[in-house]
Amino acid sequence: MAPFPGRTRGRALSRLVTAATAAALVGTTATTAAADGPAPATADVSVVPPAAPPAAAASSRAASPVFPLMAVGGTSLYQYWPDGHGGFADRKVASDKWRGITATVQVDHDRNGLPDGHYYRTADGTLRYTHAGTTPDAPVVRDRIGGGWNIYDLIASPGNLGGAGQADLLARDTSGVLWIYLAREDGTLSDRYRVGRGWDVYTDIAGRGDLNGDGKPDIVAKDKSGVLWFYKGTGDHKDPFESRVKVGPGWDAYNVLTSSGDVNIDGRSDLLARDKSGVLWLYKGNGNATDPFENRVRIGGGWGQYTSMF
To answer: Which top-level group of life is the source organism from (predicted)?
Structure first.
């Protein structure tokens, strides 16, 4: 998908995020990523237009994208765009009836550093992809990827893991095996490739873009004892991560780890952590693989109201 210039790109992105949560999520296109599963059920959602990205987001790049932080509270979905200073602008309602969605992943398939599509899993295990057309007034496209995705307890997309250009999906099954699905520009997915077993030792796996400065997306993972580990991306879908490097202990103070990319617009991807009292903290990325984050900076309290952030 081609990027849109100036304000028209922002309007198209707003329209995409709006349509990504529309009631007519059920599509017709099946791919090799499908698995046997029950018949699809329409998600019960309705939306109002969210905000366009801030002007600061124009400096984003694929290696350190600028995404909004999305947060689910009750039956509402909220959108927070970075304010360019290490925090977020006031929240905007993206949906006031958020039901029937069990996993959501934002992706940047056109590699301009802004989200242009969303993968959604509904309660019946069906995965769908929603994206905007190639012109500001083009209709939003909703494609059914396939069923059977309830075998996974985690779905994420740190970025272009396989080296082909699009934002690939990671999925961990309930036995702890991690899989990678390579994405195509139209949002369809390849057959899955096995990354490895033993990933059920982690309670959180997070990442959005490049953390160590080599231009390849990386991830961090928190184990059950609260130790955070860094996995450097290789760009090879057959072996997408190098051996893990220990970041440090004490991360069990947080019940959510997530990333929306470059929060403070300094060209490096960052990490967000919510502690058990509901305070959200920013860990600025510094490009160092063995110690990838600066000391934490407090964003603010009240984030405990949300059941999910992505």
So the answer is: Bacteria
Cα separation values, 292 from 109, 210, 269, Å = 26, 10, 10
Whole-model pTM?
0.84
- The first and second tokens of residue 99, run together, are 């039901």
Residues in the chain: 310
Q: Is residue 262 helix, strand or coil?
A: coil
Helices (H), the chain: 6-20
- The values of phi and psi at residue 136, to 5°, are -55, -30
User: From the CB of residue 112, how many other CB atoms can be counted at a distance below 10 Å?
Assistant: 18
Q: Give tens-digit pLDDT for 241-256.
A: 999 999 999 999 999 9
Report the amino acid identity of residue 261: G
Give 142's pLDDT tier (boundaries 50, 70, 90): confident
Burial of 137 (0-12, 13-18, 19+ CB in 10 A): exposed
Nearest-angstrom CA–CA distance, 212 and 301: 29
